[in-house]
Amino acid sequence: xxxxxxxxxxxxxxxxAPSLHHNLIFALKSCETTSKIRQIHGHMxxxxxxxxxxxxxxxxxxSIIDMDYAASIFSYIQTPNLFMFNAMLxxxxxxxxxxKALPFFNELRNRAIWLDQFSFITVLKACGRVSEVGVGxxxxxxxxxxxxxxxxxxKNALLHFYCVCKRIEDARKLFDExxxxxxxxxxxxxxxxxxxxxxxxxxxxxxxxxxxxxxxASVATVLSLLSAAGYIGNFGVGKSLHGYCIKIxxxxxxxxxxxxxxLYAKVGHISLARQVFDGVAKKDVVL
Length: 287
Description:
The protein is mostly helical. The protein has helices spanning 17-29, 34-47, 53-63, 67-75, 82-94, 101-110, 117-129, 133-146, 152-164, 168-177, 184-196, 200-212, 219-232, 235-248, 254-266, 270-278.
């Protein structure tokens, strides 16, 4: 096993307990394959660290790169804590089996463990990926009852869920409930949702209101605006947005440049699209 450890943690086997914990956690963070995690897991079993909740939680969090392996670890934990449940929820929400996050969330609730923001954010991501509208609405209700809905990260996760499920009216209702609690991510999420359901006029309306409340546009904002302008085929708006990109310094962002080229192409100005293309020093395959 010594060949696995980085040189500056090679003394891990002879370290005292605090240093041992620190080195294990450092090593786990650097793991990119299941085989390396298995080596650390084996060492933890030999030294009894697999019975320490803190180090076991860190092992589980690192293991979500292989959810089958993470699930095998979790199945042997008699009293999993919130961090462990959240690690599994995150793993499944990012995996090829996001639907498996839903029974984990139910089990977490059944154990009467107090949920935190991360619990809701991860399970809502999973719901959005599998378009579980009814389940997501139920989780929305739980977030309200538990008081977690007041957190902007949870609100934004709900907005994203409704937008990816094409429930723009529900997203707009949530957005308007407490407008003072909306941040730039909230505005960008709703604008992106409006683009996805082909409602470009709503995008421009939201942008005007966003500017009125004093928020500055981000790359995601401009991307939604360019996509909306391309959808309605408005060359004048497209030219204005091009100038706006230059003014605020986003004229070198590949995502925005790609959307701008797409916009010019849709309104029939291929020569302008080519000028923008030729002005990019480093091009990717999408561009």
